[in-house]
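Notes from the 1:1 (GR / supervisor)

We went over the backlog. Supervisor wanted to see one worked example end to end before approving the batch request, so GR pasted a single chain during the call. The sequence is below; no edits were made to it. Supervisor asked that the structure be written out right there so they could see what the output format looks like.
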Amino acid sequence: MGDASGAVEIGIPVIDISGYIDGDKPQTAKIAEAMKAACISPGFFQITGHRVPAALRQELLIKLSEFFSLPAEKKRALHRNQSVCPRGYESLGEQELEKNFADQKEGFMIGPELPLGRFLQGPNQWPTEEDLPSFKDTFMRYFTTVLDLSKVLFRLMALSLNLNENFFDDFVASKDCKYEAHLSDNVLTVSKAITMCRAHRYPPATIETAQKSRGIGAHTDFGALTLLLQDQSSHPCQKSLVMLTRKQLADWRSSIDPPRPGTQCIRLRTPTSSTSAT
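Structure output shown during the call:
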């Protein structure tokens, strides 16, 4: 609904996918339809019933907080510039997604533990067990769990497009080869998926720093699917997803949705015509 200024507020749909996981066919059809509608507009949705354990999510957030609290020199020793993948630490202000607005975030990126190979394939960098016990184990367990969840979402995405449920399975397998996907009379040859998991910390902003920086600048994701876990420990407005959606290249609308307990926020790549900024 709008206000006196003409702004339109929209929310991010919440979709319970437990019916699909439980094998409930009538519920699966409803979930697929809800996903289709959400992908058309606003291009974002949140999911519940995903079976990612709450304890694992909380454990990850605790370990990430411990990592970002490490001394600066310990984090710099794991900088992504030292990785050819690149994997590892990203320091504050390195990236600029909006011209003249530096991103005020620090991050840490991992992926599958593989030998050096194709683009973004290779080993991760990790803090020592002495510096951060169980960090690697917790991060990799979470990564493996949400990677399995992404396969579930791609199957639901296929159903929402009236495709065979397993249409995207080979793509999501993330092995170093190519495959052919047949859609009507067309053959689409695509490299299999590259998967990664990135953690970001956004330090509090002041009125002054906000004039020349963003948590992360407005952008569209380059990946096919993003699963976003948001920290819920701070003030809602400090931990919100700011979403801009575009309809027919006009009618810009914005939404600030605080994270909802137990949800994962799902974003699609550029064709959904959406951008986000934190």
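Supervisor's comment: The chain has a mean pLDDT of 77.
Batch request approved.
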